[in-house]
Amino acid sequence: MLVGDGPLAERLALGLRHEGTTVAVVSSAACRFTDEADVAGAIASARASIGGVDLVVHAWVAPSLVAPHAFVDLDEAVWAAGCERTLEVAWWVARAVAAPLTAASGALVFVVPTIGLSGGAEFSMLAAAAEGVRALAKSCGRQWGASGVTVNTIAAAPHHWVGDEAGAALTRSVSLSTPALGGPGDAAADLAPLVELLATPGAHFVTAGTVVADGGTWMGL
Prior knowledge:
Blueprint: E1 2-3, H1 6-18, E2 25-26, H2 36-49, E3 55-58, H3 76-104, E4 107-113, H4 115-118, H5 124-144, E5 150-156, H6 159-162, H7 164-174, H8 187-198, E6 210-213
């Protein structure tokens, strides 16, 4: 199951299907992401449509987070509608999938931008939400390990959220060199196989961790 909207979610779903995974997508077409009951209902419907779930990928952020803004111009309502809502949805998703993933000894993977690790000029809400989601993933991983559920985070290049131009500017702010592997990568070809790997028995001993998959730009962990 994949929770998300936009090009990143579309490419991740494409890549996971290419890996042989049956994917049900929970997007704004089926869920308003406004309250926990709405999210839980959409997840239950998606789970029923594919006959169960052993992998959940969460990549949803509020739309306002992917637009540039001056931090000093943000008011409380904008922050709550963007940053806080993104964190709430991640929490609601984790609560909704806890029981089915425990039954399946499954995996939950959060996908966030690397600017949660480094900060990002004009994208402070996206950076703050990304780091908050990463903290949630670590806590879930610690608590659910005894139930056989792994919870990890993939930190990917910001390009997948904010586009190539803004992503390149954010990358230049943390690195003077080009990515070691030449670019930010493609969600279908480069991120989806890693998501799939984290859900396999071979990765059963990896939990509460962050895997940086940005082509070799951010190397601060």
